[in-house]
Amino acid sequence: MPRSVHGGRHELGQNSLHHRPTIDRIAALVGRTPGPILEIGAGDGALTHALAGLGRPVTAIDLDEHCVHRLRRALPHVRVEHADVLRYPLDASVVAGNVPFHLTTPILRRLLTHGEWHRAVLLTQWEVARKRAGVGGRTMMTAQTAPWFEFTLEGRVAARWFTPVPSVDGGLLGITRRGSPLVPAAEREAYERFVRAVFTGAGGRLGRIVQRAARVDGRRAEAALAGARIDPRALPRDLDAADWAALWAAVRRG
User: Fold this and answer.
1) Which residues participate in the annotated binding site for S-adenosyl-L-methionine?
2) Domain spanning 16-177: CATH 3.40.50.150
3) Which of 65, 126, 210, 239 has its CA 20 to 30 A from that of 1?
4) Residues annotated within a binding site
């Protein structure tokens, strides 16, 4: 197979999925949503063929020009673009794809801050999918974006179902844009700073951490926790989207 000017499949972080049930599962999840589809990291086109079978407009992008040429010949009715997901407009209703593992974090960050898409179905590393969905405790990124997005864990994908075989399993992560955000969009930047300050705050009781993060006195911090009905013994990773939104609203009122 010719080598891309951007490197081989290893440098591009490509692990092609060849497990038919998983491919069908992703297509089925996408099929539950309406509108045009954007596939990121199309690679050899295994998922592209399944998405094209849904009978909806599909745009597939990949950084490997050779994969792009082959897909254009194989699927002339699909729009195939030679493009970088970190720069390409995310303007389709649904975003799907087998995400290059080494680019998972920047791709997720861009998805959660750009575009008007409504649903994403992504194949990522298992630990990333699990953490983003809040299994075993929520991460800072999840907490920062939860007022605007819902995350679901849709399944585990064994490493042996990829070629070449990666060192870790994959996971199916579903992301849905909330119809009614829990925090106003105009407050997003300030809210994200607050969440970061809470997650990175020095140890101690949650009230003390909130006090420093919100720059209020101890009485107001405790009142904010009580107003949001949050156990002061909780840890930041224990709070769900509703907890964070309520705490933020209480802090703002204070």
Assistant:
1) 15, 17, 41, 62, 84, 98
2) yes
3) 126
4) 15, 17, 41, 62, 84, 98
- What does the pLDDT look like over 81-90, one tens digit per residue? 999 999 999 9
Along the chain (254 residues), what's the average pLDDT of each consecutive run of 10 residues?
A: 49 80 98 97 96 97 95 97 96 96 93 95 96 87 95 97 95 97 96 96 88 92 95 93 96 82
The pTM assigned to this predicted structure is 0.90
DSSP string, the chain: -PPBTTB-TTTTT--EE--HHHHHHHHHHHHTS-S-EEEES-TTSHHHHHHHTT-S-EEEEES-HHHHHHHHHH-TTSEEEE--TTTS---SSEEEEE--GGGHHHHHHHHTTS----EEEEEEEHHHHHHHTTTTS--HHHHHHTTTEEEEEEEEE-GGGEESPPSS-EEEEEEEE-SS-SS-GGGHHHHHHHHHHHHTSPSS-HHHHHHHHHT--HHHHHHHHHHTT--TT--GGG--HHHHHHHHHHHHH-
